[in-house]
DNA sequence: CGTCCAAC
DNA sequence: GTTGGACGA
């Protein structure tokens, strides 16, 4: 499978939080997804559900997740998804159908009372609703955290911003950022240990590949968008790309076929991104307004108190508003 | 979902 | 080297 293969190829090293500073573009969708699942797991449902049954666990997740950046001199820029490409829409449609199947399985598991299956499926069926996106934007705005609206994929836009030097890092948990050419990607920003830094140029050098060839290697091993070729893993893929120059050379001699290969190549090499955005990294968060906003959504003080205190402290200590 | 191990 | 299954977070 693709992800494990890319990890094998990528140059990744552990870095300490202390050694980092700068601006990191975060794919809002992925980040929210992670924090939603953990928030939902460790917080009582009442805490993030309003009287009319609207679930806004994202507000808790944001308050608890942002201090991690501020306390380590990192300024996040949240990049939101825009429209989608054709291939991507197909994929999303497939995922939607799959999610419905999971929900059916979930019902069965509940009937049987199988706790392990229930929690596994629940994390998969977590939805990012319009309310969640909107309230996320508003809370981030109160905290003066920069927001960028991507024309298509947030991940691609984040990588573009890193490539053009507008930000120092992409913050992401998956390996797509490497294929999108993001120079430096920080992984595991959300977990408690030290993060990992994935290095694009070092990866190309290590295997003597061009960016295009790296994407072809990934296509042979399998990506989120294709299954890859049977019997070809990371080692063989790199060797065959060296031998034949590119994906088409390999596929020709192998008599193999990868569906949508040309579209997937473009998705990584020439994604739909924009330079029409502005980010101000001198933050002056209005923590009072943020507290009020969260309270308006009926989130109990006790759940977010600690998070807001950490934001306040890190702002006071590092002077975020005159950091840059 | 990531890591480990056994089998081909 | 690659794959798939088991297993734990």
Tell me about this structure.
The chain has 324 residues and is α/β, with parallel strands linked by helices. It has a domain at 208-269: 5' to 3' exonuclease, C-terminal subdomain (DNA polymerase, domain 1, Orthogonal Bundle). The protein has helices at 2-9, 28-42, 57-70, 86-112, 115-124, 130-142, 154-163, 176-179, 200-207, 211-221, 234-244, 247-254, 261-269, 287-296, 301-318, and strands at 11-14, 22-27, 74-80, 147-149, 169-171, 184-187, 196-199. A seven-stranded mixed beta sheet has the order 1-7-6-5-2-3-4, sandwiched between helices. Helix 8 links the parallel strand 5 and strand 6 (184-187). Helix 3 runs parallel beside helix 6 (130-142) and helix 11 (234-244) packs across helix 12 (247-254). The radius of gyration is 21 Å and the shape is globular. The two termini are 41 Å apart. It binds a DNA duplex (8 and 9 nucleotides) through helix 1 and helix 11.
Task: Give me a quick take on this structure.
This protein has 15 helices and seven strands. The protein is of the alpha/beta class and 324 residues long. It has a seven-stranded mixed sheet, with helices on both faces.
